[in-house]
Amino acid sequence: MKPSLIVHGGAGNIPDSALEESQRGIRQALESGWAVLSQDGSALDAVEAAILSLEDNPSFDAGVGSYLNRDGRVQLDAILMDGATLKAGAVAAVERIRNPISLARLVLEKSDHMMLVGAGAEQFAVENGLPLCEPEDLITDRARAAWERLLEVSLATQNRESRSNGTVGAVALDSNGQLAAGTSTGGTNCKFPGRVGDSPLVGCGCYADAEAGGVSCTGYGEGIMKIVMAKMAVDLLRDPRAMTAHRKKAGSATIAQAVADACVRILARRAQAAGGLILLDCEGRAAAAFTTPHMAYGFVKSDGSFQIAS
Ligand code: ASP
């Protein structure tokens, strides 16, 4: 089977001056994930590799460079889901993990549980050989400045409009037909301590089922959770015939694209929220949609070249 890969760097208001940097990050993530897939590596390895690259890039709201919460601390959420078994590994509100996607992978593979949070998740990391970092290691000057600006105006609602850097995600299909999806985030700027959004929740920020497709979402988490957007997308992919009429009506190029378009429309209409998603159907057809001014994303075209947009 021909492998396929799509990644995103978050839906938001990326300023023009930062667009190039975001696209560069997307390209690097595609290179990391594609290096795995093109050598017959697994979809899980490819998603982890792509997200590791984005977590290590301080331009994105994941790993180093994530937004600070109201108390000036970084709390990270991540999920990795295996489309073959429907098992996920997720972590939330971790403060001393440099790469939460790798901890999510450990939960996926080494725990009977699907999600671990806070101190318990960090204890699981230590017990499984993943080193802890200092909480300060995750904070960049840019993230602290964004936090100080938002604290000054003290408008929690600003989270919905003033987002620039973003949550990250990836979906991969490997040469064995296995599908995986993952999402990693620092959440919203100035969030209440302990707040967890859609990103690490199965079906909300991420879902993968090898029989239908894989999805990673981004945007206003409290809205995405209302419509369980990732699972909604996969369920729509399950029934391509039902989507044919929608595709024609909306003028979407493919069924996969019609599904992505339908999800962001429903997010706006039913949850009054902005956001976006990337997906691959079970044959590797890629689609992306967003209602924010930008969402940096990229996928590998059938000729092996990278398509990058924002
Ligand atoms: N969905 C993320 C959250 O609500 C934020 C984002 O994607 O920008 O935590």
Short précis:
The chain is α+β, with helices and mostly antiparallel strands. The chain has helices spanning 16-37, 43-55, 100-110, 118-127, 141-153, 158-161, 221-227, 229-237, 240-250, 255-271, and strands at residues 4-12, 76-82, 88-94, 115-117, 168-173, 179-185, 206-209, 213-219, 275-281, 286-290, 294-300, 306-309.
Task: Describe, in plain words, how this protein is organized in 3D.
- The chain is α+β, with helices and mostly antiparallel strands and 310 residues long.
- Helices cover 38% and strands 24% of the residues.
- It has one domain: Glutamine Phosphoribosylpyrophosphate, subunit 1, domain 1 (4-Layer Sandwich), CATH 3.60.20.30.
- It is built from ten helices and twelve strands.
- The strands form two sheets. It has an eight-stranded mixed sheet with strand order 4-3-2-6-5-1-11-12.
- Helix 1 runs antiparallel to helix 2 and helix 9 crosses helix 10.
- The two termini are 29 Å apart.
- About 2% of the residues have low confidence.
- The site of aspartic acid (ASP) has 13 residues, from strand 8.
